[in-house]
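Example 3.
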Amino acid sequence: MLHNMNLLRILTQDVRPTRRGFLIGAAAAAGGLAIGFRPVGAAAQSTDGAASPFDVYLTIAPDDKVTVISSQFDMGQGSYHGIATLVIEELGARFDQVDVVGGWGPTEHYGNMAMGGAMQLTGGSTSMASSWDRYRIAGATARQMIIAAAADEWGVDESTITIADGVVSDGAGNKATLGALAQKAATVPVPDAATPKEPGEWSLIGNGDVRRYDSAPKTNGTQQFTIDVQLPDMLTAVMIHPPKFGARAKSFEGAAAKALPGVVDVVETPRGIAVVGEHMWAAIKGREAVTVEWDETDAETRGSDQIMAEYRQLAGETPAAIARQEADSAAAMANAERVIEARYEFPYLAHAAMEPLNAVARFNADGTLEVWGGHQMPGLNQMIVAQVAGTTPDKVKLHVMKTGGGFGRRAVADADVFVDAVATAKALGGNRPVKLQWTRDNDMKGGRYRPAYVHAMKAGLDADGKIVAWEHHIVGQSIMKGTPMEGMLQNGVDPTSVEGAANLPYAFPAQTVGLTTSDVGVPVLWWRSVGSTHTAFAVETFLDELAEAVGADPLDFRLALLEDHPRHAGVLRLAAEKAGWGTPPPEGRVRGIALAESFATYVAQVVEASVEDGNVRVHKVTCAVDCGVPINPDTIRAQMEGGVGFGLGAILAEELTLTDGVVNQENYDTYTPLRIEQMPQVDVHIVQSSERPTGVGEPGVPPIGPAVANAIYAATGKRVRVLPIAKGLGA
Amino acid sequence: MISINININGQDHQLDVEEDMPLLWAIRDIVGLTGTKFGCGMALCGACTVHLDGFPVRSCQTMVGDVGEQKITTIEGLDSKVAQTVQTVWAEMDVPQCGYCQSGQIMSAVALLTETPKPSDDDIDAAMSGNLCRCATYHRIRGAIHESARRLEA
């Protein structure tokens, strides 16, 4: 299944749905209307009222409540709100009558349409691209059925009926709520092809005054996360994971722990030792009393210094695989007037989401298993936990929870925390539900990092200062190799290692992008914007270096290379104009600029920074973004702001290191994300576009690092080549 | 095990717990109020911030046995004019993204505005620096504190 997943689409700019054939059906559900999926050849109507709530995209209940079932997972980026906006726009409902729940189930219903549809997955900033047709059509179908029901009820022509603010009316005095008509609507024929509204009819899509439907519960403590799940008789467990990746428990001693008040048991899972208590504190105290002997035969024992030293060596050699080859770059380099080279080093990075990973598992008397958690890849989690539980996936029921951040960490091919939870509940005999809650050190030391990389860059310039040859060699671990997604590798190239480097828009007459994939036992994973977290930094700071070498303005230098790429050039020009590029910056400040396209969204940023006694302060970021039709402008702004902060924290001071295979950071004292005093003002400018919408969760991240580094050079004359900056400026 | 009386949001609770249990886990796992969040367990992230007699503390590093007579307020128990204003502005300005840290952010912000009705940017940095937000909603947190101050002055 996974090998068929067309993840490549997110890497090749093609985010259009490839399976347009999803069929919308409808059914009566609990006295209302349910809009869902209809299998090919099945009757258009189901009237038995027994439709599974997971077979549908939205329901309208008699009490006027509209429930949207989202194929896309919400970890804070606003995908639920975005999908709700599409449905409400079409339906004519109000946000205050809407709730969104996480859907899971057959990929025919919930497969990611921007990735070929074969898997339900939230990632690659594709939620809006995947949902644009599906949820607008679902909403439009409901609208047409409600209108048909109203026309029949009132004996008027359908063309006289409109729906606004949740009220259906015909302009002649007839009025009804959506809920009042829902039951009747469930009995009218399902339109074969409901047509979404034209852009001129939109009132919500593109409306900057729309606010998120789910902000209020996040201000009063009522928003429920996985950590807040409370079940009768529930236990809480924390983990002891092997201190080195690849090690396994040989034996453990839990008797002393079990003698402590509130400690229930100490059990082994496939991934470590779980300490189970009546509550979290008992589990934490119990853990301190457990001793484990580890078998480190297969463990990774290298430290990050040693790993980086090996990468530096490899970066000077011929790449093991070629990701992109245009003309003969070696010959062009040999003929160049001038050759400029640079090396860049990137550390491992942790996701460090605020809600440490967790999951709740409950075995039921009827043989089913329920699992609550941040199901970013529900089908995969369902399959894996079924294996752990010794049952079949159809017996596993999921509860998709909103989560306290994700940044990539919850899309894990081996379902790590879910395995911990289910294995623990099973080891306890399946008698009591278990909340498996990683502590911060479980989370920080739990692996799945942004891989460390070394980049070797080389460019040849001709006598006119034009780039005639470009060579880029990336050395580091593959995210997909060794996972079920390994089938995505092509000619030995993991596309997530080279995205943002092998698909550059810049007009280089000859170029080679090479990759050498290292073999290291530190588990790695996608980290918000994935390959572009490092490729954009190397490319965009090196371009500035070349611009300086030929005496060109960094903006003009880029624009000259982007003549055939209006969307790239467009955001670059917009950010530059809004930031006052070319005018003197405020006193004591310098500017830097960078551009990055990731996941088919185009972002340029101009920073205003100052450097005092080696301390970098970013005061202001002007950000221009082109993500196609801007569905929720305020969400786009929020994601650009957050992307800037997330990326800035990383390049300033985040670094995860290992000594002899053991991770050195355990908490936020030594792994240091951005804090409020470091956050710049962020001004976001959104390109008005009629292109299909793309995503915004990740693309705000890539440009900030190089834009800041370019500003630092302007301030200090020092090139940042080793990250984080706190380390690199001293190097 | 000891028997401890604590007052949370105006209600007395008698808890039979270990004296060294952090207030965080007493609030969440024993009393069952889940708005206060766990993030780090070492007073490094501020997600667990509650008020003791109106003063913001990290409940993960406050032992339940040390609370004594002090009145505990959690996010669920906020009811002052300052608090209501902050919560309203927070939602209107769409400050939260994932929302996980926001209980702690709001507890710190309410304490700040109660003590300092017109905080400067430096005041905000000093009061809010202990509250991490991995979604980096800081830009809006700052704006929402200033806006709350404006509305409370009016």
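The first helix of chain B runs from residue 23 to 31. Chain B touches chain A through 58 residues (CB under 8 Å).
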